[in-house]
Each structure stands twice: as C-alpha cells, then as structure tokens.
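Form 7-S
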Amino acid sequence: MNRTVAIAGAGSIGVAFAVLFASAGFFVRVWDVLPEAFDRARNDLCDRLALLNEHGLISEPVNDISRRVSFHEILFDALRGAELVQECVPERLDIKREVFQQLGAYSETYAVLASSSSAIVSSEFASATPARERVLIAHPGNPPYLIPVMELVPSDYTARETVERATEIYRAAGLRPVLVRKEVEGFLFNRLQGAVLREAYCLVRDGVASVEDIDEVMRSGLGRRWSVIGPFETVDLNTRGGIESHAAKMGPAYERMGSSRGQADPWTPDLIQAVTEQRRSILPLDQWESRVRWRDEALMKLKTHFEDLPATRRTTPRVPFRL
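Output:
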C-alpha cells in the first residue's frame, strides 16, 4: 500500500487518527498551526502504539508504524498527494471555516475533505471553499483505532462521488462507515448518547438512582448487550413475534416515560410499520430463534471476558446515596 492521508490538527483526536491510519498501512502527514504541539503529539503517538502492541492489536513493530507518520509546519506540504484530509481542529465554526478555506485551496483536486466535527454540520463551513462538493462530516467514535464506527454526513453541497470515496478509504482503514442521510446537529452518535445522558441526569436529579448505579446498569446491562446488538435488534429479539410485537406491548409505556419528560414522540402505526419492515428485511421471523441463540452465545463470550476483569472498577470510594 502506498496511500497518503493528511490530518489537520495535532491534538488528541488528530493523533488518534494518525494511529488508526498508520496502523492500517497509510502514510500520514500531520499539520498544525502550532508546531510546538508536535513533540507532545509524537509522544502520544508512540505511547498509544506501544499500548496497542502490548495488547496484541497491531501486526507490525511500533517503530515501523510510527515511521509512516510525519509532521509538517507548512500546510501545503502535508496536503501534497493526500487522498483524504481529516480535519481535527477545535469545535468552533470560525476556525473550521478558515481551515476549510485553506484545505479547499491547497489540497489535491481529488482529495476528500472530511471534518471530525462532533455536532456542527458541514454546510455551515463548506460554503467557505469552492471545493464544497468534496466536503463532508466524518465523525468517529473516540478513539477511532478502538471504536470502528464512522459517521459520514454529507451536505447538499457534497458530491455522491465524495461519499463513495470516503466510504472506501475508511473501510480500507478498518472502520465501519454509516451514512447519516440528513444533516442534524449531533448526527447519530451524539444524539443517541445525548438521549441517554439526559435521562441519566434526570434520574440523579429526581433521586431515583446514584451516578454509580446508573453507570453499573449501563456497563453491566445495556452497554454489554448493545456491544453485540443495537437497540432495535435488542427489542426485536427480546419479544417473540419480533419488534412489532414489542411495540404493541411496550410502546404505551415508553410513550408515558417520554411524556413525563415533556417529550411527545409516540411510536405511530406508520413508524412501527417502517421499522418492522426494515428489521424483517434484515432478519426474517423464521430466523428469529437462531438469531436469539447467536445473541446468547455472543453474550456468553463477553461474560467469560468480563469475569477475568477485577471485581470493581471504581477509582474512588463509594459514598452513601442520599435522597
């Protein structure tokens, strides 16, 4: 492989992308407006690669991988020959507009210009460059070398070919691209995470549970299951008859829960039908039993792993919970 990506921004997420792409065999050129950030970035890069090596998660010596990463004070030098530019600057619209203006001017005409933005949609800054058809959001799970999901969020400016090229590049790096079909603040990852966080804060506020107990329900319950199957497949497999049966039985309760938080988003018959049709296209009901067995076996493997971990993960003494 002789493929090159450029990373604009030598902060934490920029280093994480350097680890990801270099480990996948890409040459990586890192640029930052503050060259003094490079020493820390080099140290972080080596530390993360060493940790991956310690856990058997890289297939080459650390030095061989790190040699594929170079650091550049001049943006044009970093962009030369790069098929992808991964922007990793702070989450500020004014900064992103300025950076993408330069990326559009100096990058290769075929380069995908991808922003790591966590919430700002690309149409708000893509207009700063005539290369707007090459701009899209590519929001990772953090760190991307351990969490493989990659949200691709095009704007109305983005060319279909840009999405296709981005999909191929990220897959070649070992990621799993997911297409977000409409620009919404927070995309999928942070909107789903935000929904859980909002309810978690409310449960603490209302004296229902402690911070630690909520985290325990997530890591030992929902989180463990969701690491194998997502929320739609979870309820599809939890109820004989599938997701349509689950919606009929539990939909009213979930509607009441939402209403108690001022959120009136009932599962309408049309919405249930649409979700059911998508699930049945993925898993016909005559395969339901075998998929339930697969889920159980996957959780059994996780159980074996978690039993090898220390009995507690708390780093601070647990304090009594007071209403």
